[in-house]
Amino acid sequence: MERITAGTLHTSYQLGSLVFTALRDGHVDMPTTRLRQPGDKVFGDDFPTQVQLVSGQLRLSVNAFAIDDGADVTLIDTGAANTWHPSMGLLPEALSEANISPDRVRTVAFTHTHLDHIHGLILANGENAFPRMSRLLVPRAELDMFRSESRLSRFHDMAEPFDGGQRLQEGFEAVAAPGHEVGHTCFRTSSGGKAVLVWGDIIHVPSLQFECPEVSWEFDADQAQARASRLMILAHASDDQLYVAGAHLDSPGVGRVVRAGDGFVFEPL
After folding, report:
1. pLDDT tens by residue, 243-266
2. In this protein, which residues make up the domain named Metallo-beta-lactamase (predicted)?
3. Cα separation of 183 and 167, whole Å?
């Protein structure tokens, strides 16, 4: 997978016959107490020194990913638009920088239904972000959660539920990874004998959770299950030599995972 274009808000790669693009929606700063040790314990004086803070907080990149087959574009996650922090909502600018017209986005697939992944369906001005979208894929276990979002009511009936293990289109498969949310899902896309696993929120703080995958996140719906899914996905990515793309890996958030002792190391592409 080779980089073909890059800018402030995007990086595009050639993946077989596909163009795979990382899109930066922005960032969010969170308190260090969001990190949780086994037993839901926060760090105190033992806070890991390798984690770099910004004004005392954790800075998480927020990324979405586009798959372009030359005709249509599949978009995985959509960012937050104007529904959370003002440091987010840059997806339209990222698409423009990457020369991807919103009219070409025909499929949108959600890794899960947290607000920083779904609300980019609607622009800050209230218009539809993707006027020609014809397919909206939502994890089956989170369909009711999606339909509880009143801001997105115009899309409720359009939502198409899917399950882990389901082949959603040519070279595009859902991989169940519950824990962060009940239906949290990764997407494996492949072309030309190469594959990339878009893994949503498997990792929130890359400077720590690759080395210490037992560390979880306060907002995990089930921390023990999230921990098990993280270990499973990291091992899968490493052992099968997959490229990975993460919603909260430092932008552009694309690389490989390799084993290192009891943990793992991320090698940015």
Report:
1. 999 999 999 999 999 999 999 999
2. 61-248
3. 16
